[in-house]
């Protein structure tokens, strides 16, 4: 029978800064990146490559990404508890790689069952693992009946009740050990548990007068740390647009032992929020009053729009209040009559205050335009779209000096599309609730195996707001597994999670690099953008294990879709090595264990390190003594990273390569056909893509010359979609592909290509107004 572990007091008792002033030597540094992310640990540098080591993992970035380094005299001063864990096997050799890892839950002795395989053998190796060193930031473990040396895990990956049960094994009569437990809990940021332990110290050692004073001071410090933690979480929730949650928690904010300046700040925030609520209610009341002053005939016409606007002001005022600015500025001007003021309000709500009109007739036209646009974007019936298109091209518009009728119509439709709820919002609203994963089948999917995906909405979701999103690629176990990995932080930070089922029914668990898998992800994202209020410039791709393999492949193949790609324990093969230059277009975050097969050697040394050296936006995180596993502790860091990134939807120039039929779109340049030999099926591509001969695309634009220039090789046919963000549509436009030029004196009044592209892709942040098609003279 194995002996249970017990805590072993250290040879020399050491108190933390809570009770004593410790030595002031620097144990590490705070490395502050230019994007605001902070990493803590010891710092090493290899020319331009910077390594930040915190004992659990090392983070690798380029020195040019760093804003500053600050000394950190507290990091590493952890309260460590040693556990005596009797071993059965004392010697052996650590494996060089570990995959197919399976574990059981930790028991109260700090042990678990652990199984792994090597890349060279399918025979699983099983053992019991035990924690022998417990710290507030990381734990260290070893094999009991099999050899595993110096394993490391984040303490957050050990259930709190297990950690507390281990700490409860200290000698309850030893004051020094009990103080160390309290310090541990504070360092772990488990402040409620820390306060409870401090109270227990006073109860269990009532005769120590100096202890009572020390504990009183310590409790004050803990209360202040806890209040700072709560406030930081409220800041995250506010950014996540969870306004009711923030207000409720501000009103119940703890006050005992909290610093006065913090309480003042909290009370000021409550007052500001309450004042804003009152202002929004006042705005709604004033608008309701204005709507009552228009003519009785107009009241009937405007009843539904007025109700929609009042509902928006009640449910999501922060999303729409700026649309009323033009009216607000004019409402005290006696020269502007009620009808004109009403027109400013209802038109500004649709197209923005800067495009609001004073003509009630023109405001009516804008609402008709919005209704027909919604019909076109939401219907699956071609006949209904044709009828809506006719209306969209004939509804009269206000005149705007210096702008043609064609560009004015395109501009207004773009403004309407950006501000209206998603076209399929009412359809989704019937069954999707925040916090509950919902399965969708892609609308109008004509494939034999219809595409499905799960979606998870954040708390207080509203279709008039705009949300970041994560396209989460599962690890072979289905969309629910992907939702599980991302859900906690996505819920806290206000992200929508989209988890596509990219496998075919008979495919099995492996990722095959196929066009079918790519189509499933793109169809799911397009469908989700039509249903939900997704900010297209804040969509990220992420995946773990097999999903990480696909994230490498799909993310580099479709850089224009994402603000960043997060790969956890995924390996790059086939196309990824030939597409690595796309890391200049889409930021990468890669987390991997140092025991992952071919991980540090191939992924870091051969691929990522050169990209980091080129100043590409690449972050590499390598965990010590970890194999090919899903690294759940990385979720918080990944979201920190995502919060700092946005997509550039219209780069002024880019270089791209493509060698697969599905890898066909780059910021509006769409490949329609390759020359022979430039597109290669995945089943014949070598592991590192050495047999690929990708087609190339180089785009540059000039606003001064009103020119888009494309150089391509290996492409037989392509389309070029032109954005008003790059080109002035009121001037002569030139699109030059190789040596062929397409010149348009002024944009023609044909809105159908624009509408169809918007309907199919659903990307309301990447809108194009004009399409030019090209066929190579050598075709």
TrEMBL record:
InterPro entries: AB_hydrolase_fold, Plant_Biomass_Hydrol_Est. Residues 1-28 form the signal peptide. The keyword Signal applies. Keywords: Signal. It comes from the Bacteria. PANTHER family: BLL1128 PROTEIN (PTHR43037:SF1), UNNAMED PRODUCT-RELATED (PTHR43037). This is PHB depolymerase family esterase.
């Amino acid at each position: 029978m194995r002996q249970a572990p017990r805590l072993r007091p250290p040879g020399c008792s050491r108190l933390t800064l809570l009770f004593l002033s410790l030595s002031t030597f620097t144990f590490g540094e705070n490395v502050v990146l230019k994007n605001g992310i902070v990493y803590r640990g010891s710092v090493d540098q290899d020319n331009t490559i910077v390594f930040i080591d915190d004992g659990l993992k090392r983070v690798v970035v380029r020195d040019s990404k760093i804003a500053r380094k600050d000394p950190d005299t507290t990091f590493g001063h952890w309260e460590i508890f040693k556990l005596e864990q009797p071993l059965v096997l004392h010697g052996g050799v650590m494996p060089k790689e570990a995959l197919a890892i399976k574990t059981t839950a930790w028991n109260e002795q700090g042990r678990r069952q652990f199984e792994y395989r090597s890349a060279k053998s399918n025979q699983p190796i099983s053992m019991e693992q035990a924690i022998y060193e417990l710290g507030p930031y990381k734990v260290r473990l070893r094999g009991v009946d099999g050899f595993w040396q110096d394993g490391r895990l984040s303490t957050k990956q050990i259930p709190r009740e297990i950690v507390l049960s281990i700490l409860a094994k200290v000698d309850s009569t030893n004051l020094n050990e009990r103080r160390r437990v309290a310090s541990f809990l504070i360092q772990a940021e488990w402040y409620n548990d820390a306060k409870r332990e401090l109270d227990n110290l006073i109860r269990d050692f009532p005769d120590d007068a100096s202890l009572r004073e020390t504990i009183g001071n310590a409790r004050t410090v803990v209360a202040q740390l806890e209040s700072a933690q709560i406030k930081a979480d409220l800041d995250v929730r506010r950014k996540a647009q969870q306004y009711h949650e923030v207000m409720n928690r501000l009103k119940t904010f703890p006050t005992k032992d909290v610093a006065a300046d913090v309480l003042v700040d909290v009370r000021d925030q409550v007052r500001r929020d309450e004042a804003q609520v009152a202002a929004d209610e006042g705005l709604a009341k004033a608008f309701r009053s204005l709507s009552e002053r228009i003519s009785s005939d107009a009241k009937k016409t405007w009843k539904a729009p007025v109700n929609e606007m009042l509902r928006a002001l009640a449910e999501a005022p922060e999303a729409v209040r700026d649309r009323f600015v033009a009216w607000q500025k004019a409402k005290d001007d006696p020269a502007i009559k009620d009808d004109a003021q009403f027109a400013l309000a209802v038109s500004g709500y649709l197209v923005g205050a800067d495009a609001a009109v004073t003509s009630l007739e023109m405001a009516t036209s804008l609402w008709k335009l919005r209704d027909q646009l919604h019909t076109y974007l939401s219907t699956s019936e071609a006949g209904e779209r044709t009828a809506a298109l006719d209306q969209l091209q004939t509804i009269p518009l206000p005149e705007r000096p210096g702008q043609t009728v064609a560009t004015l119509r395109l501009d207004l439709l773009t403004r309407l599309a950006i501000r209206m709820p998603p076209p399929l919002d009412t359809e989704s609203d019937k069954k999707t609730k925040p916090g509950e994963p919902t399965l969708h089948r892609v609308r109008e999917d004509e494939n034999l195996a219809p595409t499905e995906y799960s979606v998870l909405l954040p708390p207080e979701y509203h279709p008039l707001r705009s949300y970041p999103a994560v396209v989460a690629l599962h690890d072979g176990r289905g969309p629910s597994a992907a939702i599980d990995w991302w859900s906690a932080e996505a819920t806290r930070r206000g992200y929508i999670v989209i988890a596509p089922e990219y496998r075919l029914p008979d495919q099995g668990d492996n990722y095959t690099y196929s066009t079918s898998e790519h189509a499933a992800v793109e169809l799911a994202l397009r469908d989700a953008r039509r249903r939900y209020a997704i900010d297209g410039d804040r969509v990220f791709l992420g995946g773990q294990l097999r999903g990480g393999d696909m994230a490498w492949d799909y993310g580099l193949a479709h850089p224009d879709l994402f603000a960043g790609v997060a790969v956890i324990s995924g390996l790059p093969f086939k196309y990824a090595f030939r597409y690595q230059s796309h890391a200049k277009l889409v930021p990468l975050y890669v987390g991997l264990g140092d025991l992952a097969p071919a991980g540090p050697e191939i992924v870091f040394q051969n691929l990522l390190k050169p990209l980091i050296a080129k100043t590409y936006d690449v972050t590499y995180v390598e965990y010590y003594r970890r194999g090919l596993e899903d690294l759940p502790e990385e979720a918080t860091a990944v979201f920190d990273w995502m919060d700092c990134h946005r997509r550039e939807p219209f780069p002024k120039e880019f270089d791209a390569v493509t060698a697969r039929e599905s890898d066909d779109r780059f910021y509006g340049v769409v490949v329609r056909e390759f020359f022979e030999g430039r597109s290669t099926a995945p089943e014949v591509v070598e592991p590192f893509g050495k047999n690929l001969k990708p087609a190339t695309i180089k785009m540059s634009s000039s606003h001064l010359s009103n020119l888009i220039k494309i150089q391509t090789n290996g492409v037989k046919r392509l389309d070029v979609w032109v954005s008003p963000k790059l080109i002035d549509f009121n001037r002569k436009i030139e699109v030059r592909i190789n040596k062929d030029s397409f010149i348009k004196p002024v944009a023609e009044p044909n809105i159908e290509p624009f509408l169809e592209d918007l309907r199919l892709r659903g990307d309301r942040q990447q809108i194009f107004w004009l399409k030019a098609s090209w066929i190579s003279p050598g075709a």
